[in-house]
Amino acid sequence: VDGLRNEIQVVVTVMSLDPHDLYDVVAINAASASTQIAGLPFSGPVGGVRVALITSPENPAGQWVAFPTVEQLENAVFDMVVAGRVVAGSGADADVAIMMVEAEATDNVISLVEGGAQAPTEAIVAEGLEAAKPFIARLCAAQSALASKAAKPTGEYPVFPAYEADAYEAVESVAGGKLAEALTIAGKQERDDRTDEIKGEVLVSLEEKFAGREKEIGAAFRSLTKKLVRQRILRDQFRIDGRGITDIRSLSAEVAVIPRTHGSALFERGETQILGVTTLDMVKMAQQI
């Protein structure tokens, strides 16, 4: 719940396990279920499932399997942990929103693909995400059923939202149009400068009306910025730097960019630069090294 400041910790302790089954996704569901029945203001439940693309000589195209065993994973070319929650509907009609994905090719993927197994393409991974959704829906339904029988009444917890509705409405009315226009500037530095300028104008404009609530104005401005960025992506199919939703930044890498070091490399992605340097010892030690 936004604005909840009470520290809440969920600790999952494995008391016993079956070596054939992985317990990490069980822990996700256990944490969600325990929070669901604890009387906390929780917007769950959350369901977690591992799905793996299992191949075999009879079925080289593979099949997505939920909660695969350790032995099954030896014949998998890809596996991922997917967590999500039901946002609408129920049963077969449940609309599941995916909240987290941890995905990786397996250790055996190269040998399996060389042997004729299906390589994990983007389209196939997308099928895996869809395959995970019915299981997430069933896990969430099971947790809701448990909560209906065993949950404590939701306690009273003070909530401290980052801003009140009137602050957001005021910021949106003053800066909405100008901020939306500023977010179309392709250059990051120019865009940031213009955004900071608009924020300063908003603070000055609302200073008297919201005296002592400057932090709310700043938080509302950040929230409005996020809303407009998301709107530009979903509605206009463009990111704020002008790229389409399927475009990637330009990538480049070069080595030996700095003299007198034993190793140096420069990696660039868009406006991001990473420089790595290694020096093993002094020049006079070069021959010994």
Automatic annotation (TrEMBL):
Pfam families: PNPase. Residues 168-243 form the Polyribonucleotide nucleotidyltransferase RNA-binding domain. GO terms for molecular function: 3'-5'-RNA exonuclease activity; polyribonucleotide nucleotidyltransferase activity; RNA binding. One of its GO terms (biological process) is mRNA catabolic process. It comes from the Bacteria. One of its GO terms (cellular component) is cytosol. SUPFAM superfamilies: Polynucleotide phosphorylase/guanosine pentaphosphate synthase (PNPase/GPSI), domain 3, Ribonuclease PH domain 2-like, Ribosomal protein S5 domain 2-like. InterPro entries: ExoRNase_PH_dom2_sf, PNPase, PNPase/RNase_PH_dom_sf, PNPase_PH_RNA-bd_bac/org-type, PNPase_PH_RNA-bd_sf, Ribosomal_Su5_D2-typ_SF. This is Polynucleotide phosphorylase.
